[in-house]
Amino acid sequence: MSIDRSTFSIPFLNIMFNNAANQFKTYHSTWVKVSHWVGTLAFILLLFTGIEILMVHPRLYWGNTGNDLTPALFELPISRNFQHGGWEKSQSFFNQPNSPVSASRTYDIFNQNGWGRSLHFLSAWVLVIIGIFYLVVALFSGHIKNQLLPKLNELTFATFSKEIKEHLRLTIVYLKGPQYGLMQKISYLMVIFFLLPTIALTGITMSPAVTASHPYLLQLFFGAQSARTIHFFAAVLLLLFVLIHVLMIVKSGFKKQMNGMLFNK
Amino acid sequence: MKKKHIITRRTAIISGLSTIGAVLLNGCTKPAPPTYGNILRMGDLFTYEAQRALLDKRALSKEYNQGDISSFPATGSINPADSSKPGFNKDYELLHKNLFSTYQLSIEGSVARPGLYSIDALQKFKSRTQITRHTCEEGWTAIAEWTGVPLGLLLQHAGIMPNARFVNFYGYDNYMESIDMIDAFHPQTILAYGMNGKNLPIQHGAPLRARVETQIGYKSVKYLKRIVISDHFIDTGDSGWAWYVGI
Lengths: 265, 247
Description:
By secondary structure, chain A is mainly α. Chain A is built from 10 helices and 4 strands, in the order ααββββαααααααα.
C-alpha cells in the first residue's frame, strides 16, 4: 500500500515552496507573486515621492557638502527651483579670499517634502521588508539557485548573441512562469543583488542618525552628497529596468504574462 | 542600625520578575508623538522606534576639519527683527536694538531650578566646539563650526526631574520643535552662540540656536527664547511634517 506523501506536508509550506526545486516550473509561486506586486507598489510610490524630493533641490553634488552656494555636478530642469537665483547679497564667513559665504533666499521655493519624505520612507520600509522576505525565501527554497542563476551550459556566446538579437528585434519568446531567459536572469540578479542594495544603502547614508552610528557608510559612498547622487543614478537604472521589463512583457504577450503573475494560468 | 540585606533566591526571582514587568510596562506607557490616525505619521513613528532600537544612541556624528567648512545658505526665518520678513517678533526687534545685551534664555518645566540665562552666563559653562554637517530636508548639506554649551550640561544644572521626557524649543520666530531625552543628552546636542569662530550671525539664529546633529536641520531651532522640559508630548497638531527626522 502506498502512502500519499502530501498527507504529511504542512499546507502553508506546500503552497509557499511547491516544487520550488523543479527548474521546469510552469507557474510562479505565491510568494513570488506577493513580493512582486507589493514591491511594485512600493517602487511606484518611491519613484513618485523621489521625484518630488528631487524637485525641491534639483542639484546633485559629489562629496559631503553641496548647496545653492556651492557648485553642482549638474542641475535638472524639473521644477521652478531649477536655477532660481533668488539669493540676497552673500556675506563671507572669514576675512580672506575664497571664503565660504552665507546668503538668504528672496524666492519662495517649491517644497512638498512634508508628505513627500514621510511617504518615501514609509514605502521604503515596505520595500525593505518585502525585499528581505523575498531574499530569505528565494535563498532557502532554491529559487535563486534553480531559476535565477544561469546554468553553465547557458553561458555561451551563441546564447548571448541569440538573446541580444531577439531583444533588439523585440521578438521575445514567451516562456511559462519562472523559466527565464539568460538576459532576464542577469538583469534580475543585477536588480536584486546590486541595484536594490545600493539604493537602500545610499538612502540611509543621507540619514544623520544612521551615519552617526555607521560612519563607514559615508566612506563607502564618498560622502553624504555623493550618496545622494549615486541614489539618483541607481533610481534611473531601476526605472530603466522597469521600462524594459514592461516592454518585454508587452512584446511577449501581455495577457499571458499578466495571467501568469496574477493567477496560475 | 541598618538592617542587613540578604538576597535569597526567592527575593532575587521576585525582584527580577518585577523589574522585567516594570520595563515592559514602561515600554507600553512610554510617551510617543501622536499619529492622528495618519498613515504617514505612523510610518514616521515606526522609523523613530526602529532607529532608537537599532542605532547607537550615543554615537557621534562625523566631525570635520576647518578646511571642510563650506558655504551655508540661511533658510527659514532669517531675521525676526525685520518687520517685512516672516517670523517678525517685536521682542526680538528690541533685543536686536540693544545688541542682545538684555537677552535671557528661559529654562522651565520639569526642572528643580527654572531660570533665566544670559549669553554671558551660558558662556561660563564648559563649551563644546564641533565642525559638523547640517542636513536640510530640502536635500542640501553644509559644514560649519559651532560653539556652544551642551544641552545636557544645562539641563543637569537646572536640575532636570526624573519624569522629564521631552525638551521643547521655542524660537523668537514663533517656531517650535521638540526632541526626546536621548537627543537632548546626546554629547553633540548643543545650544550654539558661536558659528565659524564668531558670534552667531542673525540669519543663522542669533544670539542662540539649537544644534541637534543626529537629526535633519529643522530640529535645530534658531533664535531660542524658551526651553520647556515636559513629562508629556506637547501636541501642537499635525504640522504635515515628521516629528522625528533622524532620517
